[in-house]
Amino acid sequence: MSEIYSTFKSGIDLSPRSRAFWRAAQAGVWLIGAFILTCLLFFPSLGLLLFWNILIPVAPALFVLAVGVWRNVCPLATTNLLPRHFEFSKRKKLTPTQLGKLNLIAVAALFTLVPLRHAVFNNNGPATGILIISMAVIGTIMGFFYEWKSAWCSGLCPIHPVEKLYGGNTIGSLPNAHCVECQNCVVPCPDSTPNIHPISSKKTLYHQLSGLMIVGGLPGFIWGWFHVPDETTISSLNSFLSVYKLPLLGFVATSIVYIIISMMISTKYEQKLISVFAASGVSCYYWFRIPSLIGFGKFPADGLLINLSNSLPEWIVPVLNILTTAFFFYFLVIRKQNNKSWVVRPPFATKEKQQVVA
């Protein structure tokens, strides 16, 4: 605990050159995001390819290896934090209960929106674009009222629970390219807490439930999602609801397994168990996603980037599956926890002693 506290206590301010580099990176990624959004709205085929078959497949691996990169340059975060950077924010602080509720809503939103990819978003560029715009507007409004990343990036964003699950043993810490000073707006801070995971905070029932849902439920949810085809036309309520059946069944199954195991083991092995489920989730994702990208998917037309099924031997698929699974289990489970946070905490806003609540 003292080692973690010393990490929290120390703060590093960015040099002018480093800050300029990160501002340029944020602007560049924002422009790429704006280009993809424009394509989704006006050139749907290209936009869907860029967003769902290039950007999104890269994200889970990035969260595992260096989630701090994404936390620094995410286009939505750059947009959402404009009110704070330009001093328009009212800078309110969330209570633990409010933050717990936002975390729970974020997890629920993730499990609600992802199956809708099969029903709507995978084949509808404008709908995907409107979804992204809606999240940007909601996040920016929240940034107008609340301090730094607390309300959106560390609260309501549906991607944040996955960041916390996969980013538990990142390669190393990067500078914090957004927060100029630490206001202790979120405790524990997901960006600055070494080896953060979804159950790091158990302050409220909302925190506990959201942590349980994302850790226990995500592996099974991913498995179920990849066993549902994209629906080009939704003709009835039953066909609409069918995209939820297998993902939710998988969610329930692995949640039960997680609950049973967590009740049987000592609390000192809790983080290791979470790492196993994190590795299971990201391995399951790439087990199905990589083959579908190159034409070997369960549903050949779904999620296709380039069809190599006539160029590559079929044995390449199990080899890729074994290699990616072995890598993620090594990286998240076997590899020693390195006590690194996603980014380095910036200097505290005041010299008063900051109390860190685990």
Primary descriptors:
single chain; 358 residues; mainly alpha; two-stranded parallel ribbon; 14 helices; 62% helix; 1% strand; disordered C terminus
Please describe what this structure looks like.
This protein is an all-alpha fold. It has one domain (19-231, 239-344). The chain is built from 14 helices and two strands. The chain has a two-stranded parallel sheet with strand order 1-2.
Summarize the structure.
The chain has helices spanning 2-9, 16-42, 44-73, 75-80, 82-85, 96-113, 116-119, 125-145, 152-156, 160-166, 205-225, 237-264, 270-293, 316-334, and strands at 174-175, 343-344.
Structural topology:
Layout (H helix, E strand, L loop, with lengths): L1 H8 L6 H27 L1 H30 L1 H6 L1 H4 L10 H18 L2 H4 L5 H21 L6 H5 L3 H7 L7 E2 L29 H21 L11 H28 L5 H24 L22 H19 L8 E2 L14
Parallel strand pairs: 1-2
Sheet having the most strands: 2 strands, parallel
In DSSP terms, counting alpha (H) and pi (I) runs of 4 or more, how many helices?
14
Strand content: under 5%
Low-confidence stretches: 1-10, 352-358
Helix content: 55-70%
Count of strand segments: 2
**Helix/sheet category:** mainly alpha
The rounded Rg comes to 20 Å
Order of helices and strands: HHHHHHHHHHEHHHHE
